[in-house]
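DM from R.C. (forwarded with permission)

"hey, sorry to bug you on a friday — could you get me a structure for this? deadline for the figure draft is monday and I only need the backbone to look sensible"
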Amino acid sequence: MKKLLKNKYIKLFLIAAIFVGLIFLALAKKQLQNQPSIEDIKQPAPAKVIGTPAVQGTLTTDVAKSIRADYPAGKNPDEAWKTFFFFIKNKQDNLNYGIFTEVTKLIYKNSEELNTVFFKGNVSEYQTKSYKILQKGNYAVIYFNNEKDEILSFPFLFCKTESGWKFDAVYQRKLVRIGDSAWGIEKTISPYSAILRKFPPYSGIDIPIEKKDVYKFSDDEELAKKIAGLEKLYLEGKLTFKKGVELGRLYSITSMEAKAIPLLEGVKKEMPKNPDINKYLAIAHVNYNYNYNSAKKEMESYVKLDSKDIFGHNFLAYLNIKTDKLDIAQVELDKTLKLDDKNCYAYEKLTRLYDKSYKNLPDDNVNKKIYQQKYLEMFDKAKKFCISENYERFIWLIQAKHGQG
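My reply, with the result:
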């Protein structure tokens, strides 16, 4: 029997959610200071990109005159970038235009907000910057020439939809991480992985996302409808706790973690033994501000409720790696392989763990050769099983072998 939230509870719940949200926003900066610094990112050796050769362009006055007032999706990535740029420069009040995906319209409100987030309020500075475009299939990145050390030089991501090329805010927020004086690209599996190899890497959100939780632009319109519908129920006092979990899930997979965390924390009080709440809270904590300790607590609860879940053991292993509990991480990865002896994620992480153990031991330690042999075994397993969409993980191991990641 579905339990409906009554209006008076909704009001209290909404107030509590907003209050918790403000706390998370206030603490975000402090929490980030306790995590690995993005300022330490090093530029890797150039990586070969398979895809369309880079094309070059600039934003001239003539280009500005050619931009349509309805800011439609682009016929190609270059047109999409120009439309996106002049939309922001021309200060539009809302995002109800074709250049944006439907989920992007839920994330941001207007051009001023986009200018602040992505251009530090200095969008006009980009008009004189020359840029290049890398494309592979339905994905493209716009990046800037000879400006590796500038904070205002990170790439912008665009995807091709049925109506044309659009700005991809979900992956932009997830993959392109910007610090005060440096930026980096998160090394995690995404449709952009191959064309982002050449940029400074950062490894802080390598979550083993399950297929059902992977954001795909082909689902964008449907996801936006679901989110909008559930938000409407929430405001009307008709949202069940079960549907509240689903809304939190949708927030967490579409880069709206600041909304996901207070909502799921509130629902957890009423449904303390629902593992999905722990799962999506953990994902949101990591994606939002690298809060590995909070995420680890959630995943420890998750695996207790579902001890045979591969995602649970893999993610808990990753969180233990990030909090320097390497022995516990190895135990969790071994549990994964007992459930799935072809699991690429587990083999990739174990390869790195054994390599680190081998390198940290003095030459006369009797275990050094054992760790070296285990490293080679795991490397071969990763080579065999990291295929298809997970092939990028084997590429990372090759890069690490050559000191590039």
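R.C.: lifesaver. The chain has two domains: 1-36+214-303, 39-202.
me: no worries. The longest strand covers residues 52-57.
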